[in-house]
Design a protein that fits this description.
Layout: E1 2-9, H1 20-30, E2 34-40, H2 49-52, E3 62-65, E4 68-71, H3 73-84, H4 92-121, H5 130-148, H6 162-171, H7 184-194, H8 197-210, H9 214-217
Parallel strand pairs: 1-2
Antiparallel strand pairs: 1-3, 3-4
This protein binds glutathione.
Length: 218
Amino acid sequence: MITLHAFGSVHPVTHGLTRDLRVQWALEEMGLPYTVRGWDHTGGETAGPEFSALSPFHQIPILTDGDLVLSESAAILIYLAETSGKLIPSDPQARAHVIQWTLAALSTVEGPIQPLKLMDMGAMGEPGDVRAFLTGWTRRVLDGVNRRLEGRDWIAAEEFTIADLLLASVLRQLRHTDLMDGYPNVKAFYDRAMARPAWKRTLDLYAERLGADRSKIE
Ligand SMILES: N[C@@H](CCC(=O)N[C@@H](CS)C(=O)NCC(=O)O)C(=O)O
């Protein structure tokens, strides 16, 4: 049986915007049977060990289905679509477009919109506090990645996958900071990914293509 782990209580300023809505909407569209477990965010339940065992970043929504524990609203929707055969076409090229726009919605489109929403909600404090807010937020996600990488080489599977390639590419955007230093598993993961011969070859080819100084783009 599917269980949607959703907010049982959360700060009213977020009411109507939380991401448990999108999963419940999909479940309703698909007509799937499910139950809801409401977690008390206001009382700190989502920061506790029971929820932490389900959620890498202590965040809602989570979907459980038998032994499966799944976070990330996009992954949850893809799973529900693939297992039910609903809200996703069967043709591989048409599916690829659905995945394309699923990822675009949550990265390219939501990227600037989420900080704007948080700023307008007052969650970032005064404009001068914005860097401190974003640094704290970054530390929080690094902590989740660090926990996930405990005892693992790669983030999603035993072998290197596209998830590692994407994660390392995202982390690379922090290389002008020392933020990764506080997260040894993340740092080791990043160094492992950057040491891959294919990455080195890619940088060589890139430097050649753009006439860039190879030592400056490492
Ligand atoms: N990328 C995640 C983001 C999840 C997320 O940001 N969840 C928010 C609610 S919409 C949350 O749990 N906030 C409470 C918190 O971070 O403590 C997803 O798409 O599921």
